[in-house]
Amino acid sequence: MTISLDTLKEKVGTYLDTFDQRDISPSTFTLYTRNLAHMLYFFEHTLKKQAVSPGDMIAFKEYVVQSYKNMTAINMLGTANRFFRFIRAEDFCVDNIKKEEPDCPPDILTKEEYRKLLAVAAREDSKLYYIIRTFACTGINYSDLEFITVEAVHEGYARAHRRDKHWTIIISRNLQKVLLQYCAENSIRNGIIFNGRGNNKIIDRGYICRQLKVLGSMVHIQEQKLTTRGLRLYFSRTFLESEKDVMELNELLGNKVYSSQQLLPSRSIEEKSRALARLEL
User: Fold this and answer.
1) CA–CA separation, 56 vs 134, rounded Å?
2) Rounded to whole angstroms, how far apart are CA atoms 231 and 229?
3) Nearest Cα to Cα of residue 119 among 270, 206, 37, 220
4) Residues 140 and 169 sit within 8 Å (Cβ to Cβ)
5) Considering its fold, how many domains does the chain have in total?
6) Would you say 126 and 156 are in contact if contact means Cβ atoms under 8 Å apart?
7) For 109-131, how does the pLDDT look when each residue is reduced to its tens digit (9 = 90+)?
């Protein structure tokens, strides 16, 4: 079985048009677009093919495994497999590789390091100060910044949704005061608080990551701790140390696992907000 390269390009365009209509984050859509562009480039310019066979996908897998880090390779092959299942060409799907488990648990910011990071951000980059507080006080992912709106801050929570997943992001009273102050200082009266430029709904991930590392280096924090995921981990550890409730943590993070295992009724939004305020993040 073969598929002409022109047909493959057309089907990729159709797939992305369909995918773009779903309830997904802009960053996820960008990732899928980039991954499929890499695949098409490999077929056209590396293999110099006019038509593609399942064997060419095996060659693409070998290239990806040799050229990219483990998680990047997993994402690229996963994207390709989802695309071929979408066009009902399962013969082109390849077995994905296994995720490499770290030799030790990931480094997480200490409370002292977090305070130092906030202090240097307040002095050097006030916008990043508020972004850091938002991640560390809520445990959200980068793409969830679109749910942090002026309206949500006034309510004290945001209704988040991603495809078939729905959850509530709690905005504690502490964070409410901080973000309302930011909005007042920057004349932000409605909508997303941390806006992006151009077609981006939210502020650029690259800017956040670069600035975290710049500021962290000023106060001698290890670079691997300075990511949005690192702030999410810091929130999770701090919450567990205080509340010791894994199920509620999963609920706050929007993880699907909690919904099928939750035995007791969930606490109210107000109760969760008070619990988060006690963390003093």
Assistant:
1) 45
2) 5
3) 220
4) yes
5) 2
6) no
7) 999 999 999 999 999 988 999 99
